[in-house]
Amino acid sequence: MIRLSKRSVSTLLRSGNQSFRVAAAASTSRSSPSATDVKRSDTESRWYSSLTNGQSKNSGSFAQLNMKTNWFMGYRNESSAAASDSSSQAPPPAEKFEYQAEVSRLMDLIVNSLYSNKEVFLRELISNASDALDKLRYLSVTNPELSKDAPDLDIRIYADKENGIITLTDSGIGMTRQELVDCLGTIAQSGTAKFMKALKDSKDAGGDNNLIGQFGVGFYSAFLVADRVIVSTKSPKSDKQYVWEGEANSSSFTIQEDTDPQSLIPRGTRITLHLKQEAKNFADPERIQKLVKNYSQFVSFPIYTWQEKGYTKEVEVEDDPTETKKDDQDDQTEKKKKTKKVVERYWDWELTNETQPIWLRNPKEVTTAEYNEFYRKAFNEYLDPLASSHFTTEGEVEFRSILYVPPVSPSGKDDIVNQKTKNIRLYVKRVFISDDFDGELFPRYLSFVKGVVDSHDLPLNVSREILQESRIVRIMKKRLVRKAFDMILGISLSENREDYEKFWDNFGKHLKLGCIEDRENHKRIAPLLRFFSSQSENDMISLDEYVENMKPEQKAIYFIASDSITSAKNAPFLEKMLEKGLEVLYLVEPIDEVAVQSLKAYKEKDFVDISKEDLDLGDKNEEKEAAVKKEFGQTCDWIKKRLGDKVASVQISNRLSSSPCVLVSGKFGWSANMERLMKAQSTGDTISLDYMKGRRVFEINPDHSIIKNINAAYNSNPNDEDAMRAIDLMYDAALVSSGFTPDNPAELGGKIYEMMDVALSGKWSSPEVQPQQQQMAHSHDAETFEAEVVEPVEVDGKKGTQA
Questions:
Q1: Same-domain pairing of 476 and 567
Q2: Which residues contact 546 (CB under 8 A, 6 or more apart)?
Q3: Are residues 401 and 463 in the same domain?
Q4: Is 490 annotated as a binding residue?
């Protein structure tokens, strides 16, 4: 064999005159199947005809294939003379083959890949029965003779728990022998799809059709739970009833005429499932009823299940012999028959799908009471919803939906990260598909919204992977989210303010989470937010109300984040703003600060954190600032030198009026509130906290007496120890009042005690009294005096006192 370089290969491939021959042509011909292998029985060929459809594309000669691709398949280059001879010869004719398949294995792969949950077998069989009834109803319009044998259109399910057998019977169109062969003998061939095609081709076909199954594999879901399936069917087009029988692990089936008089049916189809050993629990009548209510509650035809019932009746009680003797002795006493109540048990058909799909009705015809009743029944609730939205979407994607806002949060007010809810029930043409979604139809922050979505565009055999990749689902999600916001906005605009207060109390955190996760809907979320403020500490206000109350010269929306309203309104950052009458939002929940920072602005007004540096209140006086900076500039440098790396800088504050100093965060770092929250996280990384703390700026109030004394201390004696201790204590106090946590609380306590000792020394105690004075005072207090009595006397006839 000639070895060629890459350059030679590319040269040969570009020239169209060289020919190549497959080296393994002989081995290919030897491996071709024989005529005996190609031949199969009619029955077997029908099983896998759906894969080949009886056709195979002619690939043509190998010379027509791409040469660059074929180089890697084992070609060799012959001499130019041989190539010229071979090019003149005609290419050998291509042989045509059909794909072969192990039918039992193929059916097992199809069924188990489409259906991950075994209980959907009943949903599929009921859907097929509904289609059969729909077909009969359509055809009976032009041919009433088809429905004369059994006028009632219904589905009946009988479960034999003891023998593990489920029987499903419908009074639909039934099947002829040939239809049995075509529909049940060919995988993925749908009789419904053929019927719909005939309807489209017919000029008389008008109106919407509600046929469900169009893929031809729903029937085979029966083999998820059954190892043997028997289908008895009678079509009004035929006088005979036929029985189709197949087993799970077999590649063949049987069809025969049903001659048993006891098993004959007027019209329709009866499917009997002989359950596998591990699936016999499905034969429980109560479970059958539960599956019907879950998956096929809104099928347009009545579904009856065989259920045990009971009624109470009174029966006579036999008299006691001793009591009988007493009654005989007293003939005058009238005898009364004694009875007792017992429950009589019996079996009968029970209508299972009583609830009607009100989303198919015109919204103008449905009352609020009907919406509330449907909500309580569909979601097992006992309270009425706060709001509902009934709409139909047409155009690129068609679906109907009813959405509800529940009155309370079922999982608790603090649980906003649980997106594994079963609040949205997806239906395809009234057949339940799933309620287990992971954000495919609604984002996580709207997971509290409940409702039903009925689509005509999604396939019935939908799976999680199909939902994630489906363009239809993405369009549905956008429209559902938009309608949900319209519904919540309607609650906020309601005259009854208590309704939205109740909603916000239960689901306010969900909307704040939406500010973080859904940037596309910021304009819809922001008007729904509510916060306390410095001018409304008892009632929450909206951002629209805040903007309306803004001062004419105000350019931003101010906020402060804290752990409570009390700590927020007493923070030193608000002093100057309260004097100016500027309103400040109080963000008192942990998620508030991140949510507001994600919004960035509202109605062209930026959100500004007043606890961070470079706060602009719009009242700058450059001359005054220059004079103050000249007076206190060196003092600021002195304080910075004392504090060292604790602060990034020391500046003159424009936000203080009564406090001597405050510690503000850097513009791009964490606030004190955020730093506190991050430290409290169970998975907090102490190393990364140091990077995210950001810079801290120490601001002083030049009008405060303490700062004036500190300035005087610097001018007189910068090295005074008392002044140094005063700076340290002032920083620690600002650290606490600004919302930060001190690194060493014990040290701070010691400084406070020390300053208290100095301040309180001799304040309430007097100097020591001399011992002699104390003794004199004591003797003076102890000495007693006796009074002298003076008698009056007369002198010259006048009274006087005698000494």
A1: no
A2: 531, 533, 557, 583, 585
A3: yes
A4: no
CB 792 within 8 A of CB 801: yes
Domain count, the chain: 4
**Is 215 within any annotated ligand binding site?**
yes
Q: Residues 112, 252: one domain?
A: yes
Predicted local distance difference test score (pLDDT) of residue 162: 92
Q: What is the pLDDT of residues 26-82, one digit of tens each?
A: 344 434 444 444 344 443 443 333 334 444 444 444 344 444 444 334 444 444 444
DSSP class of residue 664 equals: E
| CA-wise closest residue to 248 among 381, 119, 108 | 108
The annotation status of 217 as a binding-site residue, yes or no, is yes
- Least confident residue range of 112-116, 395-399, 442-446, 514-518: 112-116
What would the pLDDT profile of 307-316 be if each residue is shown by its tens digit? 988 888 777 7
Shared domain check, 370 and 234: no
Q: Within a domain: residue 50?
A: no
The backbone torsions φ and ψ at residue 662, rounded to the nearest 5 degrees and listed phi first, read -155, 155
384 is in an annotated binding site: no
Q: Which residues contact 131 (CB under 8 A, 6 or more apart)?
A: 172, 192, 211, 212, 213
Residue 582's contacts (CB-CB under 8 Å, 6 or more residues apart) are 551, 554, 558, 617
268 known ligand binder: no
Rounded CA separation 257/622 (Å): 105
CA–CA dist 184, 217 (Å, integer): 9
For residue 660, tell me if it sits in a domain: yes
Q: Yes or no: say if 355 and 296 are a contact pair by the CB < 8 Å rule.
A: no
Same domain, 438 and 544: no
pLDDT tens, 566-625? 999 999 999 999 998 999 999 999 899 999 999 999 999 999 999 988 888 877 778 888
- pTM, entire model: 0.69
715 domain-assigned: yes
216 is in an annotated binding site: yes
310 labelled binding-site residue: no
Does 486 appear as a known binding residue? no
489 with 451, same domain? Answer: yes
Measure the CA–CA gap between 118 and 791, rounded to whole angstroms. 130
Residue 208 has pLDDT above 50, yes or no: no
**Where does 516-635 show beta strands of DSSP type E?**
530-533, 536-542, 556-561, 584-587, 601-602, 605-609
Is residue 161 a contact partner of residue 275, using CB atoms and an 8 Å limit? no
**Whether residue 368 has pLDDT greater than 50:** yes
124 is in an annotated binding site: yes
The response to whether 694 counts as a known ligand-binding position is no
Pair 485, 535 in one domain: no
pLDDT tens, position by position, 374-390: 999 888 888 999 999 99
- Beta-strand pair 387-393/450-455: unpaired
